[in-house]
């Protein structure tokens, strides 16, 4: 594959992986927890380095996943204690991220691990960091990692689709049916954490947050069926990656930033022109209703 094809494939995998998980966050009104986890995992990455004194990917992965789950647990704990959910997210997000920044600047400042790299990422370097087995170049590591995480997420969703669907739409009904709502919650948070961590070093937190929220929000405006919403969110993620890459190529700007911008443009167009929930369709429906009332 060509250099550009690897970048597009990586961006598409991020769009599909994060977009599918984002659908459930949108339905559960927890979209901004994606922003929180995408930043607080910095603490896990730094802590893993300080404990193991190694930059090996598996150490970073485990540390980030643990802190991602800790973030979800603390937010849930504060929310259950009476703190408003948005305030709970803000408190946990800023506190854990700040601790991560302090540890990074105090104890790991000489290591190739900095806040700007973590937040922005650099998808342009992906094709050069390859996986080799027995001297055979198998392509970028990021593609294999993201592909594996996507496969894991799809298997979990396929196995627990009904439970996740009911718990997302009607938690009270799920409890009445005997579905372990909290287990489903932390299962989703675990999927969110590994998806965030897998995407983190490749594209940075900004694109991760964009792909976790925007494709799902766009799909939400286009359909009322969860299965279709999942497919549409994946399609939007892929279109954002492809469109963003060529926009960056033509304009000589950040690839990740372009992908996030194209995702925002697709959402804006959907917000205006969606057949059922779009601004234009609502305006036409309101005028039609007003015309019918005046006629009667």
Structure description:
It is a multi-pass membrane protein. It is found in: Cell membrane. Belongs to the ABC-3 integral membrane protein family. It comes from Halalkalibacter suaedae. The protein has 296 residues and is mostly helical. The chain has one domain (3-295): ABC transporter involved in vitamin B12 uptake, BtuC. It contains 12 helices and 2 strands. It has helices at 3-27, 33-52, 57-80, 85-107, 115-120, 141-159, 161-169, 171-176, 181-220, 226-251, 255-273, 279-295, and strands at residues 130-133, 136-140. The chain has a two-stranded antiparallel ribbon with strand order 1-2. It is globular and about 75 Å long.
What name goes with the CATH superfamily? ABC transporter involved in vitamin B12 uptake, BtuC
Number of separate helices = 12
Name the poorly predicted regions.
Answer: none
In the CATH scheme, the class would be Mainly Alpha
Quaternary assembly: single chain
What characterizes the major β-sheet?
2 strands, antiparallel
Helix-strand makeup class: mainly alpha
CATH architecture: Orthogonal Bundle
Strand order of the largest sheet: 1-2
Reading the helices and strands in chain order gives HHHHHEEHHHHHHH
Strand content: under 5%
Shape estimate: globular
Count of domains: 1
Q: Report the mean per-residue pLDDT as an integer.
A: 84
Number of E-state strands: 2
- Gyration radius, to the nearest Å? 20 Å
By CATH, the topology is ABC transporter involved in vitamin B12 uptake, BtuC
Query: Roughly how many Å apart are the termini?
Result: 65 Å
Helix content, binned percent? over 70%
Keywords: Cell membrane, Membrane, Transmembrane, Transmembrane helix, Transport
Membrane topology: Multi-pass membrane protein
Family: Belongs to the ABC-3 integral membrane protein family.
GO biological process, one term: response to zinc ion
């Amino acid at each position: 594959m060509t250099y550009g094809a690897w970048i597009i494939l990586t961006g598409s995998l991020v769009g599909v992986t994060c977009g599918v998980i984002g659908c459930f966050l949108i339905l559960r009104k927890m979209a901004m927890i994606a922003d929180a986890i995408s930043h607080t995992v910095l603490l896990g990455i730094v802590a893993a380095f300080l404990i193991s004194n190694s930059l090996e990917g598996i150490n970073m992965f485990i540390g980030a996943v643990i802190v991602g789950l800790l973030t979800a647990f603390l937010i849930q704990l504060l929310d259950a204690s009476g703190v408003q959910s948005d305030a709970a997210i803000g408190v946990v997000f800023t506190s854990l991220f700040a601790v991560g920044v302090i540890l990074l600047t105090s104890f790991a400042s000489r290591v190739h691990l900095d806040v700007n790299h973590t937040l922005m990422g650099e998808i342009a370097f992906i094709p050069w960091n390859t996986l080799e087995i027995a001297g055979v170049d198998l392509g970028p590591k990021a593609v294999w990692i993201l592909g594996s995480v996507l496969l894991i997420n799809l298997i979990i969703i396929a196995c627990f689709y009904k439970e996740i669907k009911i718990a997302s739409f009607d938690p009270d009904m799920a409890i009445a049916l005997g579905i372990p709502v909290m287990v489903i919650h932390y299962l989703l948070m675990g999927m969110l954490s590994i998806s965030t961590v897998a995407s983190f070093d490749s594209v940075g937190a900004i694109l991760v947050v964009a792909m976790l929220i925007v494709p799902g929000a766009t799909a939400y405006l286009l359909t009322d069926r969860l299965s279709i919403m999942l497919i549409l969110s994946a399609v939007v993620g892929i279109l954002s990656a492809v469109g963003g890459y060529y926009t960056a190529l033509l304009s000589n700007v950040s690839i990740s930033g372009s992908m996030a911008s194209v995702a925002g443009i697709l959402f804006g167009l959907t917000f205006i022109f969606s057949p059922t929930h779009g601004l234009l369709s609502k305006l036409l429906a309101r005028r039609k209703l007003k015309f019918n009332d005046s006629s009667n």
